[in-house]
Give the backbone structure.
Amino acid sequence: MEHATTLDHTEDVYEPSLTPDSLGKLGMWVFLVGDTMSFGALLAAYAAIRAGAGAIGWVPPTEILGIELTAFMTFLLICSSVTMVKALESIQNGNVSRMCMFLGLTIGGGIIFLGLQAYEWYHLIHHGLTLTGIPDHGLSGAAISGSTLFGPTFYAITGFHGMHVTGGVIYLIVILIHGLRGRYTAEFNHEVEIVGLYWHFVDLIWIMVFTFIYLL
Amino acid sequence: MAQNGHKEHPKYMNIFWWLTGLTVLELLVVIPDFPTVVKAILLIGLACAKALLVANYFMHLKFEKRTLALIVLTPFIICVLLVFALMPDLTLDSRIEGATEPTTEVVDTSAH
């Protein structure tokens, strides 16, 4: 009993001042800050390679990558972010079944996104965009010779993001199983908020990847 | 212990429409033949606006303590600095390219 009292006291002492409602939330934010550096370093390196290649030494991405499909994928992730916040809102109002429904929709959005990314990769590889080459139809010699890093940078950045989406889908499935078993209530739901932070981060990063890799 | 301090939810559907509208605007910027610099400024501006909406409202950063927001902002600033830090490497490349040209000329002269 005395031991339990000591633990409670310790918990009070180390209550995080930045996120007083949940220590786990602070942990997730710290992880996301580190992950931002990982994505940021990849995008910064990409920007430097692009700038180094010059205007004619790099194939315009819109000539190789289809932006219609990825625009739809962006819209899909935005929709899944909305269903994620709706799931949190539902459990904060004490509605467990509604939370589970919205979590299911979020997972569905993530799985469709991954399916579309797999389709896109298959299509691009089939048309010659590999780690060592690019499709050469109608492109100038300077663009082809200068764009040897087009494939590696594209697959590294979109692949790294895709792995995050995969991790997010698995994480959401775990939270959904907990939710179906009745773990969460209107008073206890910080785990749903934490998975939401991760999922919105994946959406936020895709917004950047879509702009830098596909549109610019 | 109460798990969530902010029970007042933002109007998520409004944020959704803003994000959708900004995505459509991005596609409209890509289609016309704008100068590259103008296009880049517009697209990066739109992407930052979308990222801010997601972080502030979906991730509730707007409702968290300001110090947390500043901590989260730090890696973005570092990444921008990283781009500028890599720039000397690019100018070094061009200097190396410039240095190889006279060497080639010397070889050509001796051949004659």
Observations:
- Chain B touches chain A through 51 residues (CB under 8 Å).
